[in-house]
Amino acid sequence: MTSPTITESELRAAVARELPGVRADLERLVRIPGIAFEGFDHTQVERSAEAVAELLRGCSLDVRIVRSGGQPAVIGTRPAPPGAPTVLLYAHHDVQPVGDRSLWESEPFEAVERDGRLYGRGAADDKAGIMAHVAALRAFGDALPVGVVIFVEGEEEYGSDSLERLLAEHRDALAADVIVIADSVNWDIGVPALTTSLRGVVNFFVEVRTLDHAIHSGMFGGPVPDALTTLARLLSTLHDDAGNVAVDGLTDAGPAAVEYPQDRFRAEAGLLDGVSLLGTGQITDRLWRKPALAVLGIDAPATAEAPNALVPAAKAKISVRLAPGDDRKRAYAAVQAHLERHAPWGAQVSVTFEHDGDPCVIDLSGPLVDAARSAFRTAWDGTEPVEIGVGGSIPFIATFQEMFPQAVILVTGVEDPHARAHGPNESLHLGEFARVCLAETLLLARVAEAGTGH
Ligand code: BES
Ligand code: MN
Fold first, then answer.
1. pLDDT bracket for residue 334 (50, 70, 90)
2. Pfam families of this UniProt entry (predicted)?
């Protein structure tokens, strides 16, 4: 290697020097409403990919925008110095829709600071992930001690439909010894985490039909089942009385190693007084290790406009989270069979698939993971990272593991428990973000020292 090794204190100074520019570029990214969902303006996803490409070009990477029938992803590469390992950095540039605008305290696509947090859709999930990678690259400048390939996906929040094809088409460019996925959450403010598992997900629609047209609710009501009551009855079969998912055929991954204090969990979730938690077992078992099922939306007449008529058809969107180790195809078949078998009153029930992603389990042993632990400990002033599971999903990970079974995977946090990703008033804790950027920089330095041996 020709470049002299940079010391830890030089890296700290370099990250501190880069932070204001990183923050400004994060704000620029937040202003681009790149939503991959159907029905949204996909030219914004293009703009977002362009903006990411520009940032990466500025880090002396060889950059291209790629797609395979879906939304644009950005790949940037820089070859490894002789003998040094190559690190793949992952993040996504697409964001979730903003939902009810009136619930936001500031414009969702403006970055606004309040009380040490930066508010805006994607400020945390996952534009902070992109900028953590950029921060590390900028901190090293020309002295980057590892090879880098960065992959910034453009449709993670919409189920990564073209991801498998993209990975296959760019397989050679994406090969790496270590992969850093900056799209998870830390344990608490001041306490870092390394993610050991994520749940899978299957989203689908269930439609119930009982009539071929709407009819007068007084003239026919009584003997005739309306579709909305029928749908409600069907949905109620999905949990048992204790709130456990009651669908046969979904697996359970056994107990988690860490527990989440119940009071803290209730507060972070914003659960109202008196509302009970669903299911049995430790909170972390229910959150990380067991399946979960939620109704995300229903198409039915709006109450303000509903006439006195029996509703002929109603449709719900359902999301099932799968335990680590479960299989998305089998799980979908199990839920579909459950819904068809439980059709109330002979109603017509049809289930249609939306999208899915496999769960994953990540092995946190070996010298490269130890190198990551030590980088985190240093960035958080001696606080050891907690090994956590995550209830959310990143479909990329299982796909990537299948393709590159040898690669060491590090799933790192940019969010904290107060980030409100996917909800109104999403935000990034700026103090923690500074640590995240430092941790990733130190991580690359330590991975370079550890070399390519796993
Ligand atoms: N960043 C999240 C995954 C995540 C959630 C990590 C919670 C840590 C804690 C990711 O962007 C995400 O939300 N993924 C989607 C995937 C789905 C659309 C296939 C999800 O989990 O809903
Ligand atoms: Mn994300």
1. very high
2. M20_dimer, Peptidase_M20
